[in-house]
Write a structure and sequence with these properties.
11 helices; 38% helix; globular; two-stranded parallel ribbon; alpha/beta; 349 residues; single chain
Length: 349
């Protein structure tokens, strides 16, 4: 019987991390999660164990900040990792504008520490959680991986800097293998309703906000900009089901073991654009709830239309998103009904 590959997942208790950890376990990987629980919950890990069933014994969790080099070194000294999937990082655009140093410290210093420890212990395969924000405000759509890169805020800049670091490290030493995954807009939840997105405080993203309006935690949804030259005047984005996104990471992980891989980048999206009002309408249909809207002016720096070209991921990773917007809204609503206050059982804020 072959020994299962062992994967370190940083930030594995977070929204995308927890869904990916579950798919890794179900696929037979030994999975070690490190997370500082800054914007995540250990309850997510307990629920992943529950969903993993017979595979739960392959999961270990350590509460750890990846900037804590001695702790990370101790972990690498005691466990041989075949690859790392790196999610850990802060991710709120608005907060990054207010607190750029906090973002540079957490995201950049954290990644440098991780890469140094990986190098010291001979682990040279990394899947990195990047973002479509590295395209800045694209002049045309769909966005292909060859588009010029620019970041419009400190959060996006941290993603771009880390991508550049990976490219530079690979150029200096071709033993490294990197896959940089540029996500579009992950929404939805595991169909069981046991794990999903649980942002602390007021959500920054559209779907968690819609969900909070539906369960009565927010009075209405603010729609920023209704005069864009789109089908209904509202901004258009590429929403992807978080389970499809998680499976994209498994496909990328497998690709890291392909001898021809160096430092590659892939978009993970559906290749379809959905407007704010279309998403609201699909969610109303899934939930049977009316979402009150407050229409307001455009937010500075918001792009009009952004969606992915997914041809490269389909061709080279053999991966394609399978779920449409209806599935995303249905699963989001199951999660919301089961967990109206996220992983907290009752109202805490």
């Amino acid at each position: 019987m072959e020994v299962p590959l062992c994967v370190l997942v940083t930030g594995g208790a977070g929204y995308i991390g927890s869904h990916t950890v579950l798919e890794l376990l179900l696929d037979g990987y030994k999975t070690v999660v490190v997370d500082n629980l800054n914007n995540s919950s250990e309850i997510a890990i307990a629920r992943v164990r529950q969903l993993a069933g017979d595979h739960a014994h392959n999961l270990s969790f350590y509460k750890m900040d990846i900037r804590d080099k001695p702790a990370l070194e101790q972990l690498f000294a005691s466990t041989k990792f075949d690859a790392v999937i790196h999610f850990a990082g802060l991710k709120a655009v608005g907060e990054s504008v207010e607190k750029p140093l906090m973002y540079f410290d957490n995201n950049i210093i954290g990644t440098i520490t991780l890469l140094e420890v990986m190098a010291a212990y001979g682990c040279n395969k990394l899947v990195f959680s990047s973002s479509a924000t590295v395209y800045g405000w694209p002049k045309e759509v769909p966005c292909t991986e060859e588009f010029p890169l620019s970041a419009a805020n400190p959060y996006g800049r941290t993603k771009l800097m880390i991508e550049d670091m990976c490219r530079d490290i690979f150029a200096s030493n071709s033993d490294w293998k990197f896959i940089l995954l540029r996500y579009f807009n992950p929404i939805g939840a595991h169909p069981s309703g046991l794990i999903g997105e649980d942002p602390h405080g007021i959500p920054n993203n559209l779907m968690p906000f819609i969900q909070q309006v539906a369960v009565g935690r927010q009075p209405a949804l603010k729609v920023f900009g209704t005069d864009y030259s789109t089908k209904d005047g509202t901004g258009v984005r590429d929403y992807i089901h978080v389970v499809d996104l998680a499976n994209g990471h498994i496909a990328a992980l497998k690709k890291l073991f392909d001898p021809t891989i160096g430092c590659e980048v892939y978009n993970l999206g559906t290749g379809k654009g959905t407007s704010v009002l279309e998403l609201v309408s699909a969610f109303e249909k899934a939930s049977g709830k009316k979402i009150p809207l407050v229409k307001t002016g455009r937010r500075p720096g918001d792009a009009e239309i952004v969606y992915a070209s997914t041809a490269k991921a389909e061709r080279e990773l053999n991966w394609k998103a399978e779920h449409g917007i209806e599935d995303m809204c249905r699963d989001q609503w199951i999660w919301a009904c089961n967990n109206p206050y996220g992983y907290q059982t009752e109202k805490t804020q």
